[in-house]
Amino acid sequence: MGDEAQSLVDQTEGLTLQDTDPYIRTDGVAAIKKEFLLDEPHAEEPVENVKKEKKEKKAKGMNKDRLKEMARMTTNVRAASARLCPSVYMPNVKCKHGEKCTSEHDIGTFLARKEADLGDVCPVYEQRGHCPFSYACRYGNAHLTEDGKQAQKEPAKPYVETRNAKNMHIQMAMRKRKYDFSRSIQFLETLPDCYHKRKGARASAPKAKDFVANDSENKPVAPAEEDEQDVADQEPEQKVGSMEREKRRITMKELAGKKYVAPLTTVGNLPFRRICVDLGADVTCSEMALATSILGGVPSEFSLVKRHASEKIFGVQLAGGFADTMAMTAQIIVDEFDVDFIDINMGCPIDVVNQKGGGCSLPTRPTKLYDVMRGMRSVMKDVPLTIKLRTGMKEGVLTADETLAGLIAAGCTPDLVTFHPRSKEQRYSKLAKWEFVEPCVKAVPDVPFWVCGDVLSWEDYYQRLENNPIDGVMIGRGILIKPWLLTEIDERRHWDITATERLDIIKNFVWYGLDHWGSDSAGVEKTRRFLLEWLSFACRYIPVGLLEHPPQHINQRPPYYKGRNELETLLSSPRASDWVAITEMFLGPCPEGFDFIPKHKASAY
């Protein structure tokens, strides 16, 4: 910890929140007008808080087993529903399971078992002018002609295909170890032998020298069999590792003052980013992608780099702890995909990422960090390289300024720094330490410097921007709670958005989600799942018209209250069952056996 940072800790020790940040109330509870207050909760406690732990311990942290439980639930739900094999209605697609396929191959039999349509209008058909999910679509009758064929029409607006979506040939190249990594190898050969024999390295981990160059005699072949979620993305065989770029590269200094939506794991998906763009976002970034998973050809990881045409400035965030995997992945991204920058995740607090050398742990290993920076730089051509980091690992031990100064001294200057002034240990609790911003800015002179933390109103945004020596403010949880914050920033006003207007935004998310994940049964349930993830944050919003002293601050919990109408009350409910009810307004009843387990046992305020 630098002397200036230690002095800062000493000065702020014992101070109240109001002492260190005059913009935020200290009581932790939002002041709501008396006529909307309730003596008793308008709903039961959130389901995540119902089960009492031993010794009455307060529920906190993540539900670490939820992914397994939800995966098991999804498998059971899919097994119980009628499914039509994509080989029946998708051109040039063969059944990947053969005699073991559990999906229907006869259209008539499938239609007899299929659940009732969810509505008379198919969102995919309306947006595209045709529905690639054909008879499997849960809105199938909307595009079925009298003679039983699939209808087509001109959409109201020209449909633009999602970028970076046709990547199956790259996935297969990764799985078959057929890709030209000569640029990465050129850098990796400069590293000492001990690096390649590092302790803990898996023998099965992808290595640059294991890949053969992609030439005319040894090209990866586009598969005829694909995962159902990628089946609409199939494309002819094509050469990989040779994408030409003609677009003008932006410089990170051009971003100054633009509205930058943070990379948000799980909830920062493409449909949600489209919502943000609709409401005023200028810069967007993918969810965190793991470098090793990209190199392993994992389809779900490749889906994270997809970019909608409306995303004006778009970056991909990578997480990893070693120069070989990070350089190889960066080469794939810049050669094969349409991106404006790549961001290194040095701020993820999740243990599984840190245990593998990524996230918050990467800055604690300076030599590895410098190798990662140099390796990625060597393969990224003219694509900017940015970083996002926290104050350090432990609460009260501020090391980010030393990390940044070390990068400059090592000749590894990033093109832009985004700083989240919280520690790994702190995660998202308590308030961000904005007073530590200036020492970090001084450590990287002439580098565009952005900060994120605790912005939930346009006043928060401009106060942070104008009172700190920074180039911009990145917005994270505030966008999840109220994405229209982007509009408020543009118009410098508190938008007392109505419940109906909020529901319209949710409807747009559903339409974008069905276009992205599909309108068949699997796509509908995936859209429902990610909508529920978002609603678990959106319920924290308190309408402006209900507040005694607007604006709401991110550390304030609402007391029990009712809205101005039933819909506003429903949208504010902390109950997962009410979130499910909201999804059923657009996606119909949940299938039998469906369950949603919130990501966190308790919300961080």
TrEMBL record:
This is tRNA-dihydrouridine(47) synthase [NAD(P)(+)]. A zinc finger (C3H1-type) spans 121-146. Residues 41-53, 207-218, 236-248 have a biased composition (Basic and acidic residues). Its EC number is 1.3.1.-. The keyword DNA damage does not apply. Keywords: Flavoprotein, FMN, Metal-binding, mRNA processing, NAD, NADP, Oxidoreductase, Repeat, tRNA processing, Zinc, Zinc-finger. It comes from the Eukaryota. It is an enzyme of class 1 (oxidoreductase). Gene3D superfamilies: Aldolase class I. InterPro entries: Aldolase_TIM, DUS-like_FMN-bd, tRNA_hU_synthase_CS, Znf_CCCH. GO terms for molecular function: flavin adenine dinucleotide binding; RNA binding; tRNA-dihydrouridine47 synthase activity; zinc ion binding. Its cofactor is FMN. It comes from Mesorhabditis spiculigera. Residues 224-235 have a biased composition (Acidic residues). Residues 41-64, 205-248 are annotated as: Disordered. Catalyzes the synthesis of dihydrouridine, a modified base, in various RNAs, such as tRNAs, mRNAs and some long non-coding RNAs (lncRNAs). Mainly modifies the uridine in position 47 (U47) in the D-loop of most cytoplasmic tRNAs. Also able to mediate the formation of dihydrouridine in some mRNAs, thereby regulating their translation. Belongs to the dus family. Dus3 subfamily.
